[in-house]
Amino acid sequence: MQINSEEKKAVDIREIRERFPIFAQRENRDLIYLDSAATTQKPDSVIKAVSRYYREYNANTHRGTYRIAEKATVEYERARKTIARFIGAVSERQVVFVRGTTEAINTVAVGWGDRVLKADDEIIFSELEHHSNIVPWQMLAQRTGARIRLWEMDKEGRLHLDALRNLLSTRTRLLAIAHVSNALGTVNPIAEIVQLAHDNGTRVLVDGAQSVPHQQVDVTALGVDFFAFSGHKMLGPTGIGVLYAREELLDEMNPVQFGGDMIESVQVLTSTWNDLPWKFEGGTPNIAGAIGLGAAVEFLQEIGIDAIHRHETGLIRRAVEQLQALPGVRVFGPPGDRGPAVSFEITGIHPHDISTLLDQRGIAIRSGHHCAQLAMKKLEVPATARASFYLYNDESEIDRFVKAVSETRDYFAKWL
Ligand code: PMP
Q1: What's the 224 CA to ligand 1 centre distance in angstroms?
Q2: For 171, which of 122, 189, 344, 350 could close a Cys bridge (C-beta 3.0–4.6 Å)?
Q3: Can you name the CATH fold of 47-301?
Q4: Is the CB of 178 under 6 A from ligand 1?
């Protein structure tokens, strides 16, 4: 039997960490960075790709006829092709560069939603969504008179397909759903969800901000209509991300930014739009960002996204098991498989105090509502502490983190 080389590949953390300059800084020697769900660190190859663009061939794309402008255009479009292949898009015409997940979702809400939705149509989103996948739909509902239906989660942060079946109606135009929850790590069965929605004639937008960085995603196999993700959560620069959509939907949608580059022709009173995907890329794009994101994808491919996923699965299991074993610590989120993020609390201690004390030991975690206030409300907490992992973390960091949580609990115990 032939073994796929990807299957055999293990992640060599030491070698990987050496490629992230931030960990080599003297001040960061003891840093344990456990906040990759918020944003990830950047490898040297990404920083160099961005810097090389500015140093060696900085020019605007698509317009210049001279050498460096052509090179800038080629590299920008090459990044798009790399990303399209990475997510299994049929064509790079389906990959629109935007600022990030938030802008991608807002683009769909305005460009598609305003055009398609009517009064009394329905939009479903889940209770575990990030605010970026809630508020654009609220605003769309206010503009069009459409109604919001909430897909509620259970107390462990799981969504049940039966509940979705009950919510879907002849009026449901759109279902907006996270692939992986940033607050609780819940992994949603997107292919099944898409099947249910499509059987009902409902379009599906998937927020892939927390999935694309960590697991193999094939947008074509999943059958999604719209898919959004951010470059900075997958080793790329900030200010760049992707809206993927099926081509007929992009054709049907209105652009939302009007100006240079998205234009085919301009008359006094009307104008026509450029081809896909440039129809949605009005103004000078984030050229360096796109090139940097292309380099980030190449880095992920070199290590192997399946190998990264396996490594993170080991880390999250270890973290959850150890935290659950600590008396006085409550772990939120579903049992079993989850993305590489764990939310928890220490009874009686505010999450901000936990993150502040951990910071004193060089451990960076996040505390707050994680832009998921609906989920926090269901859990009946104002906030949680959250640790999230990526390919550059290792087991020893998990162990030191859990030890620090345990010591933090003991430190506060005398006042409780
Ligand atoms: N959705 C999810 C699930 C997220 O984790 C985030 C970022 N925390 C966003 C949307 C928003 O991403 P961005 O800020 O990059 O637009």
Answers
A1: 18
A2: 122
A3: Aspartate Aminotransferase; domain 2 (3.40.640)
A4: yes
